[in-house]
UniProtKB/TrEMBL annotation:
Protein name, UniProt field: Iron ABC transporter permease
Family: Belongs to the binding-protein-dependent transport system permease family. FecCD subfamily.
The keyword Transmembrane is assigned to this record: yes
UniProt keyword Nucleotide-binding present: no
Origin species: Roseburia zhanii
CDD domains, per the entry: TM_ABC_iron-siderophores_like
Organism classification: Bacteria, Bacillati, Bacillota, Clostridia, Lachnospirales
GO cellular component: plasma membrane
One Pfam family it belongs to: FecCD
Localization per record: Cell membrane
GO biological process: one example: siderophore-iron import into cell
Residues passing through the membrane, by range: 9-35, 63-80, 92-112, 118-139, 151-173, 193-215, 236-262, 282-302, 311-330
Length: 339
C-alpha cells in the first residue's frame, strides 16, 4: 500500500514537472510571431536567430513570470485554506487581492502624478499593506461570525468595495501613463522584464522556503488546534506566520500581474485529488508546480485565443477555475447531507 502511494506521488510530480516544461516551451514558441523550437535551442547555444529579442526580452520573462507567480498564487490559496479550514478560501475570494490592488493603484497614481519612479520594491510594499488591511478585516470578521460561509461573503464584499475604489482611481487619474494601470488592474503577465522576474523570484523563493520549513507544524495544525498544541506547536505564532506569508505572496502577485482570480482556490483542490493526500510536505511543492502549469496554460490561451488582441488573464482563469469551485461546493454539500 505504501509502495502504491509512493508510485502515485512520483507519477504526480513527474506529470506536473512535464506539464510545466511543455507549457513553458509552448508559451515561448506560440504567438503572433512563431518561434520554432530549433531556433530556441540554437539561441540557448549562443547562435544568433531572427527573433532573438522577442524570445529573450518578451516571451521568456513572461513565461517565467507566469511560472513563478502562478505557483505563488496557488501556495497563497493553500495557506489560506489551511488557516481558515475553508475549501473556498483564497486571496481573490477573501478580498485580499483587491485590497492589495487598491493600495498599489493609489501609490502608482500618487507617485506617477509627481514624476516619481515606481520601483518593484515600492509596489510590493504597497500591495503588502493593502493585503494586510483586507486580511485584518477578514480576521476581525472571523471572530464575529461562526459560519465560514458568512466569512467568505464578507471577504467578497470587501473585495467589491476595494475594486470600486480602484476603478474610481483609474477613471479620475489624469496622467496619460495611467492607461497602463487600467490594463494592469484586470490582471496580465504582459510587460514583464528580467528585472521584474529577478525581484519576484527572490521574494517567492524566500517565502516558499519558509513555508516548506513549516510543513511539520502545518501537518499538526490540519489535525486540529488541540492536537497541534499537544505536539508543541505555537498556534498563535503559526497562525501569524500563515497570515504574513500568504499576504506576501498575494502582494507579490498583485504588484506585478494585478489580481488573478480562482487559481488560489481551484489548484490546491486539484492537486489534493491528484496526490490523494493533504500532507503539507507534498502539497507545498505540488501546489507551486500546479499553479505554474495552470497559469502558463491560461496565459497561453489569453495571448492566442483572440490574437493580436490579448484577453485578461482572470477571464481565462475564471473559465477553468469557477467550475472547480462549483464542484467543491456541491461535493461539500453532499457530504453534509450524507452526514
Amino acid at each position: 500500500m505504501k509502495c502504491d502511494k509512493k508510485i502515485r506521488y512520483l507519477l504526480a510530480f513527474c506529470l506536473l514537472l512535464a506539464g510545466t516544461l511543455i507549457f513553458i516551451v509552448l508559451n515561448v514558441c506560440i504567438g503572433t510571431v512563431a518561434i520554432p523550437l530549433e531556433d530556441i535551442l540554437a539561441s540557448i547555444q549562443g547562435y544568433a536567430i531572427q527573433n532573438e529579442r522577442i524570445l529573450w526580452d518578451i516571451r521568456m520573462p513572461r513565461a517565467v513570470a507566469a511560472l513563478v507567480l502562478g505557483g505563488a498564487l496557488a501556495l497563497a490559496g493553500y495557506l489560506l485554506q489551511t488557516f481558515f479550514h475553508n475549501p473556498i478560501a483564497g486571496p481573490f475570494v477573501l478580498g485580499i487581492s483587491s485590497g492589495a490592488k487598491m493600495v498599489v493603484a493609489l501609490v502608482m497614481v500618487f507617485l506617477m502624478g509627481r514624476a516619481f519612479t515606481v520601483s518593484s520594491a515600492i509596489l510590493i510594499l504597497a500591495a503588502f499593506i493593502g493585503a494586510m488591511l483586507s486580511m485584518g478585516f477578514v480576521l476581525v470578521m472571523s471572530h464575529k461570525v461562526n459560519n465560514m460561509s458568512m466569512l467568505v461573503v464578507a471577504g467578497v464584499m470587501i473585495g467589491y468595495i476595494c475594486s470600486a475604489v480602484t476603478e474610481l482611481i483609474v477613471n479620475f487619474a489624469s496622467d496619460a501613463e495611467i492607461v497602463n494601470l487600467h490594463n494592469w488592474s484586470k490582471g496580465s503577465f504582459s510587460g514583464m522584464t528580467w528585472d521584474h522576474v529577478a525581484v519576484m523570484t527572490g521574494v517567492v523563493a524566500v517565502t516558499g522556503i519558509i513555508i516548506f520549513l513549516l510543513a511539520k507544524p502545518l501537518s499538526a495544525y490540519q489535525s486540529g488546534e488541540s492536537y497541534a498544541q499537544n505536539m508543541g506547536v505555537n498556534i498563535r505564532l503559526l497562525r501569524m506566520a500563515l497570515v504574513v506569508l500568504s499576504s506576501i505572496l498575494s502582494a507579490c502577485i498583485v504588484a506585478f500581474a494585478g489580481p488573478i482570480s480562482f487559481v488560489g482556490i481551484a489548484v490546491p483542490h486539484l492537486i489534493r485529488n491528484l496526490l490523494g493526500t493533504a500532507k503539507p510536505i507534498l502539497m507545498i511543492p505540488a501546489c507551486f508546480l500546479g499553479g505554474s502549469v495552470f497559469c502558463l496554460f491560461c496565459d497561453l490561451l489569453a495571448r492566442t485565443l483572440s490574437a493580436p488582441t490579448e484577453l485578461s488573464i482572470s477571464t481565462v482563469t475564471a473559465i477553468f477555475g469557477a467550475p472547480v469551485v462549483i464542484w467543491i461546493m456541491v461535493r461539500r454539500n453532499r457530504e453534509k447531507m450524507a452526514a
